[in-house]
Structure formats: structure tokens, C-alpha cells
Amino acid sequence: MSDNQLETIISDRIRQQGRITFCDYMAACLYEPGLGYYTSPGRKVGTAGDFYTSITVHAAFGRVIAREIARMWRSLGQPTDFTLVEAGAGHGRLAGDVMDFLAEQEPDCYVASRLLLVEQEPTLAGAQADLLAAHAAKLGWCSPAQLATLRFSGVLYSNELLDAMPVHRVVMTAEGLREVFVTLQDGQLAEQLDHPSTPALEQYLTRYGTPLLAGQEAEVSLAGLAWLETVAAALERGFVLTIDYGFPKEELYTPRRRQGTLLCYHQHKVEDNPYIRLGQQDITTHINFSALMERGEQLGLQTVWFGEQYRFLLSAGMLDEFEAIESAALSEAEKLKARLTLKRLIMPEGGMGDTFQVLVQSRDVERPQLGCLKGIGL
Ligand SMILES: C[S@@+](CC[C@H](N)C(=O)[O-])C[C@H]1O[C@@H](n2cnc3c(N)ncnc32)[C@H](O)[C@@H]1O
């Protein structure tokens, strides 16, 4: 028997059911209460964790997003009741950077705002409350399930939320589409291919994918679509801002990516084996932005802007952040260090600048005036 408690639980589950979908396996690895990667103690993001997100690089990331949020507030006619919702808020660092900026630089927008934090892992609320103590009067919390019951006007934003949702994995074979299941062989976790567990997988690929070649593997995120449906139902008026790594469908399902996009992260090393270190390594996939845009349009969410993170940040205010460094009371060495740190957020060709994409969607907003729509203009 394994000394990994999560592996024992998953193995027992497989013995009872015969096998489980990869999606259920990934959900357990990431979110099994108390034992999953995101639901167990320990730092996940940053130097002491397993990977960096833009949030951990520099507060300028959140400050630029806050500039765009203030423009969204103006585009909505400066409402006095403006709800910000951060989904997948983690420890609350991005929310802190956004609220600090609004309080300092956009006081009218700040006064009108309240902030709701949505996190799958409820115990993070304590860390979020500490980090956001200066904004305590404006804070609220809700679970992902409660999000479905909300109705609000404002902005829902997320960074690296959808890449952390469990996916189904499929393979195209000469006999047709097959799904990856997880079973036990001689007591060890092993993969098994069989007919898909639900027709929704083939329907998803027909609607939001491209034809797969024989031998090609791919991921299908039904959870990502379900999340968008919840968000679309909750948002009465305003914007959805989604930042994540992923591609439009042609690039995501290209035959060049024959093995799909699933990766595991542990102590800043990349692995492709999801059957080791259960609950102790991140498992992640690239997201399908075409699915979000196309399903969004069906749900009344218009695509306002979609593009690389570097374009978004540069057009939404990153240059002002560089200027702020120049006028700050810092030594030349400190300024250089700060400039290089900021550059990581916008560096293209494999850096965070074009690995990450930004999608802005809106409901019931005429002619939004956003920085990203003006373009970089260099
Ligand atoms: C990759 S981490 C990103 C954290 C943070 N946004 C950042 O960029 O550093 C993904 C986070 O999303 C949370 N999460 C996953 N599914 C969620 C859902 N349906 N609703 C809200 N949070 C969710 C996870 O618990 C985890 O904290």
C-alpha cells in the first residue's frame, strides 16, 4: 500500500468503481479536501512554491489591471454600486494590488467598489483577510457554488484560474474518439482508453475544437464551460477579464501538439507524469479561448478584446509603471532591478508576455473605452 494518503483514497475509489475518468482523477489530485494540491497546506505560488504567476512577479501587474478596471467603471457610467469579483483569488495578492491602486489613484471608483473573493479552497480566506486588512470594509467572500446564485454589475476577473480546473483527456484512434480513464494494474495507477464517458466530449470538440488526427491527444474542459455559464448568469452588466495561458482552438488542437498540453509543476520543475507525487505537484493544461469566446457570445457576453498579455499590459498602463520607477527614490541599481522585473511580465517569445493571453468580455456595455482597445501605439 502507498504511504501517500491521497493515492490510497484514489486507489480505493478505483477498486469500487473499476475505473475513474482522468477528469475525476485530476479533480482529486488538485482538490480532494485536505489532501489535494490546492486544498492542502503549503505555499504553491512564488519562490518557495512550485511555480510563479504574474501576480508574484511584481505589484505592477495588479496596478495595470486596476487601471483597466477603473476604465471599465467609467465605461459603465461610474455607478455608485460597483462589484469586483476575483475568482481563484489564492492568497489575495492580486486583489490587494488592485484595491491599493484604486484607493490611491482612483478614489471615486474605490468608494463605489466592493470586492468579492471566490476561492475553491475556503481556508485561504484567513490569508486573504490579512493581506487585504486595509480594505476590510469592502470585502466579502463566496464559494464557487454561491457564485451561481449571485447577480451583480461590475467586473469579474481571474488570473490562472481556468488552467487549474480538471479536464477530460481524449485520444483520436482509428476506431474513433476515446477517453482516458485511470485504473489499477497490479496495484499501480494505469491509463485505459475506452468510449467517452459522456457525449459532451465529442460535442465540445465539434463545437469548440478542430478535427483531431489519428493518434492525437487533447484535453476537453467541460468545467471551464460550466464556469463561464455560471459567470454569464451572474453578471447583469459589466465585464469578464480572464488572464491565462492557452490558445484559440486552431493552435490548441494543432497536430503539432500531438500529446495535448497537460503539464505538472513541482519546485519549479516541469514534469509530464501526473501519476507521481499525488497532491504534491500541480497539474495544469492550456485553456481553449475559442470555447470561452464562442460560448460567451451564445450567453450574451461580447468579445471586447483578446490578445497577448504584453499587448494588454502595455496598452493598459505598463509604461506608466516604468515611468514611476524612474521617478521613484531608488538607486540606479534598484531601478535597473525593478525594470528587469517588470520586463518579465511583458517579455514575448516564451516569456510571460506572450505565454499568457487576456480575454475581455462584456455584457450590456456600449462602446467601452478601454486601454487595451487603443493598442500599444509605440
Ligand atoms: C493556479 S492558482 C492561481 C492563484 C492566483 N490567481 C494567482 O494567479 O497566483 C488557481 C487557484 O484557483 C482556485 N480555484 C480552482 N477552481 C476554482 C473555482 N471554480 N472557483 C474559484 N477558485 C478556484 C484554486 O484553489 C487556486 O487557488
Characterization of this structure:
- With 378 residues, this protein is α/β, with parallel strands linked by helices.
- It has a domain at 54-163 and 223-252 and 284-360: Rossmann fold.
- It contains 16 helices and 16 strands.
- It has helices spanning 5-17, 22-31, 54-57, 59-75, 93-105, 107-112, 125-131, 144-147, 200-208, 222-234, 249-252, 289-298, 309-327, 332-346, 352-355, 371-374; strands at 20-21, 82-87, 113-118, 139-142, 152-159, 168-173, 176-185, 188-194, 217-220, 235-247, 263-266, 269-271, 282-284, 287-288, 302-308, 356-363.
- Strands 2, 3, 4, 5, 10, 14, 15 and 16 form an eight-stranded mixed β-sheet that branches. Strands 1, 6, 7, 8 and 9 form a five-stranded antiparallel β-sheet that branches. Strands 12-11-13 form a three-stranded antiparallel β-sheet.
- The longest helix is centred in the C-terminal third of the chain and has 19 residues, at 309-327.
- The termini are far apart.
- The structure holds S-adenosylmethionine (SAM).
- The site of S-adenosylmethionine has 18 residues, from loops.
- S-adenosylmethionine binds next to loops.
- CATH T-level topology of the domain at 54-163 and 223-252 and 284-360: Rossmann fold
Any idea what the shape is?
Answer: globular
Please tell me how large the radius of gyration is.
Answer: 21 Å
**Ligand inventory:** S-adenosylmethionine
Rounded to the nearest angstrom, the distance between the terminal CA atoms is 61 Å
Write down the overall mean pLDDT. 95
**Number of helical segments with 4 or more residues:** 16
Poorly predicted sequence stretches spanning 5 or more consecutive residues: none
Largest sheet: 8 strands, mixed
Strand content: 15-25%
Percentage of residues in helical conformation: 40-55%
Name given to the CATH architecture of the domain at 54-163 and 223-252 and 284-360 = 3-Layer(aba) Sandwich
Strand element count: 16
In CATH's first tier, which class of the domain at 54-163 and 223-252 and 284-360 applies?
Alpha Beta
**Category by helix and strand content:** alpha/beta
